[in-house]
Amino acid sequence: MNYFTGASVIIITFVVVLCIISLRRRAEFVLNFLLRTIVGVISIFFVNEMLAAQNYAVSVGINPWTALTSGILGLPGVALLYGINFLKIL
Question: Are 40 and 77 in contact (CB under 8 A)?
Fold first, then answer.
């Protein structure tokens, strides 16, 4: 085995390991995003129900935009959506 073959094997192995690590991190990011989205939409549903039971006229709709907001920002994003809606009624 000459120098060029040995170096190319090391480089190819290094690139494969980097790709595997990158895919793992990307999968972790996607899983976290989906988890935040699901928790956010469920939170919106239950907070809407709680506010309706207390006779408040504020509710956040469940749609792709609110799901995206809760997926990116998490529960603070849900609080932001309710804050915006509370400001609308002032």
Answer: yes
